[in-house]
Amino acid sequence: EIEERMRVEVELKKAKDAAQQADKMKSQFLANMSHEIRTPLNGIINCTELCLDTRTSPEQQEYLDLVRFSAKHLMRIITDILDFSKIEAGKLEMEDIQFSLYDQLEHAVSVLAARANKKGLELACQVDQSVPDQIIGDPGRLFQVFVNLIGNSIKFTSQGEVVVSALVRSRDGDNIELLFSVRDTGIGIPKHKQSLLFQAFSQVDSSTTRLYGGTGLGLVISSKLAAAMGGTMWVESAEGKGSTFHFT
Predict the structure, then answer these.
(1) Is there a contact between 181 and 244 (Cβ–Cβ < 8 Å)?
(2) Which of 1, 69, 174, 247 is deepest in the core (most CB within 10 A)?
(3) Cα dihedral sign for 205, 211, 212, 216?
(4) Longest Cα pair distance anywhere in the chain, in angstroms?
(5) Which residues, including other chains, have CB under 8 Å from residue 240's CB and lie 6 or more apart?
(6) What is the pTM of this model?
(7) Cβ of 10: how many Cβ atoms within 10 Å?
(8) SS3 of 144, please?
(9) Where would I find the Histidine kinase domain in this sequence (predicted)?
(10) Rounded distance, CA 72 to CA 227, Å?
(11) Is 232 left (phi over 0), alpha (psi -120 to 50) or beta?
């Protein structure tokens, strides 16, 4: 009986190791393929931009604008898959440098201001006076989380506002914990479906994909980036009353 139990345990360990290796290889394959696809896609985007700078007819301009929009949308999807694959493969690299937090916030808001303005939304940023400007961390990844959350709020809000805020949650010597929030007046999320938000390739329901698009990876990646920066992410939301995404 003991020998049989040991044999089963050995077989289970072998199966677990094989599954982990297969999962790692899958993530590595996705990362490599995503990287390879980005190269020709960048060529398509650049050539389209060059064509748009030449003299074209209104009809050609319309077609080229469509090509550019579609290529950039595809690039966003590929970037999401590449980031997700890196995270799953344990190859996500984080910087640890000094940077201006205010600049990163301002840049993220300005990048998305036109999209908010096009929908008639107010996009505001509120930073508590206690929040320092110069901090040490990964500015690129922090900016990526800002853009993901603010972009999502704009996407799911048809009227009202999107407000980004930052405040100090705790301080211990040179270490500081910051709390960031992105609040919107959008469609909101039913409580029983909020657990799906941070699962890969998930949407609240199938109509979300049809109406708004997306891979269902943005929040998963943002949550994992927050964890990699020593923080957590969560949501407070009510259907029809908007959402607030917090991360530390």
Answers:
(1) yes
(2) 247
(3) positive
(4) 83
(5) 187, 188
(6) 0.73
(7) 10
(8) helix
(9) 32-248
(10) 28
(11) beta
Task: Give the Å distances, CA to CA, from 57 to 47, 61, 68, 71.
Answer: 17, 6, 16, 21
Would you say the C-alpha torsion 214, 215, 220, 224 has a positive or negative sign?
Answer: negative
Query: Two tokens at 26?
Result: 């899958």
Half-sphere exposure of 192 (CA within 13 A, CB side): 1
Within its chain, how far is the Cα of 110 from the centroid? Answer: 17
Beta-carbon neighbour count of residue 97 at 10 Å?
Answer: 10
pLDDT of 248 over the 60 cut? yes
On whether the CB atoms of residues 35 and 12 are closer than 8 A, the answer is no
Which of 156, 237, 233, 232 is closest to 191 using CA atoms?
Answer: 237
**Residue ranges of E strands in the chain:** 97-100, 122-127, 134-137, 161-172, 175-184, 233-238, 242-247
Residues 6+ apart with CB under 8 A from 99: 134, 135, 136, 137, 139
